[in-house]
Write a structure and sequence with these properties.
Elements lengths: L1 E9 L9 E9 L2 H21 L11 E6 L11 H12 L3 E6 L2 H4 L11 H5 L4 E7 L2 H6 L1 E15 L15 E5 L3 H10 L9 E5 L5 H5 L5 E5 H10 L4 E17 L4 H14 L6 H10 L3 H11 L2
Parallel strand pairs: 3-4, 3-5, 7-8
Antiparallel strand pairs: 1-2, 5-10, 6-9, 6-10
Helix pairs in contact: 2-10
């Protein structure tokens, strides 16, 4: 490549004693074509960036940051939502970084007027991959994606006193994860009981409540249908369903409100998987519940009538 310089003279004001000389490069030879092409490509990229300024992004980095809560406490089984997040990411060409959090962290806000959770705002998480109840309060600060139906159930040990209504829980002991919809269900029940009949509620932030039921430390626990079906599938000799509480609600994942593209990708992936008996999702459901997705849904609705 031959590189030479032109002297371009720019006149200054009359009061100036001398002229200023600026040298600009002149490129000649075959490399000039490549330089021009490169400049055009750069200009196109800048134009595209300007046109897309302010558009929502799908994730905060090349790697999708998936925040999760293990089903049965720290360092225990991760659960179906964890595995479905892996399948979703692979299907959509993402690499993943999994970050373990607690339930009470997931919806923490900077202030009472904040419209985004701390973890999404800070960029620590791109996705909450856990069975979250789609409540109005959560919808205000995240974009929630309904993935499968759920209903809370009381789970008890076999051979214990029959418990078929909330009144049968008077004076009993339980443990619940703080800040969950399960805690709210039990607190609402306690408001209708006299002081001597109130349920003794122990709270935890890490989960891991099933072993306490199996070891007779508590009389019952409340779990969403996914957790309950899984627990009974694996401990069919020790546990049974008591009764459903509340109504059937949608469970799902959450992303930042700024990540609508990611939310739509998740919806599209699940919609394409739900009706297939041999889909990736049904494979995960069979592993944890002994049921395909469609069988899980039918079972839930049949026992909720």
């Amino acid at each position: 490549m031959k590189l030479s310089f032109d002297e371009t003279v720019y006149p200054m004001k009359k009061s100036a004693r001398r002229k200023s000389t600026i040298r600009s490069p002149r490129i000649s030879g075959p490399w000039v074509i490549r330089v021009v092409q490169h400049q055009k490509h750069l200009l196109a990229l800048i134009t595209l960036a300007v046109l897309n300024f302010g558009s929502p992004i799908a994730y905060s980095a090349e790697t999708l940051k998936v925040c999760y809560v293990p089903w049965f406490g720290p360092d225990k089984e991760f659960g179906p939502d964890y595995e479905m997040a892996i399948n979703f990411a692979k299907s959509n060409g993402y690499t993943t970084s999994f970050i373990q959090i607690t339930y009470d962290q997931s919806f923490e806000l900077e202030s009472d007027t904040a419209n985004e959770t701390k973890l999404f705002r800070s960029g620590k998480c791109d996705l909450y991959s856990m069975a979250l109840t789609l409540t109005p309060a959560r919808k205000k600060v995240t974009e929630m994606i309904a993935l499968y139906p759920g209903r809370s159930f009381v789970v008890v040990r076999k051979g214990t006193k029959d418990r078929s209504t909330l009144n049968d829980l008077k004076g009993t002991k339980t443990v619940v994860v703080k800040g969950t919809s399960y805690e709210q269900i039990l607190e609402n029940a306690n408001q209708t009981f006299s002081s001597k009949d109130k349920i003794k509620i122990q709270t935890t932030i890490e989960g891991g409540n099933l072993p306490k039921l199996l070891s007779n430390e508590v009389d019952f626990i409340v779990m969403d249908s996914a957790l309950a079906f899984s627990a009974i599938f694996k401990h069919s000799k020790e546990l049974r369903l008591g009764f459903p509480v509340g109504k059937i609600e949608q469970l799902g994942w959450a992303v930042s409100k700024k990540n609508s593209r990611l939310a739509n990708e998740i919806r599209s992936y699940f919609d394409s998987q739900k009706t297939l008996g041999d889909s990736e999702i049904s494979g995960v459901f069979k592993k944890y519940f002994g049921l395909t997705y469609a069988q899980y849904e039918r079972t839930l609705y049949s026992i909720s009538k």
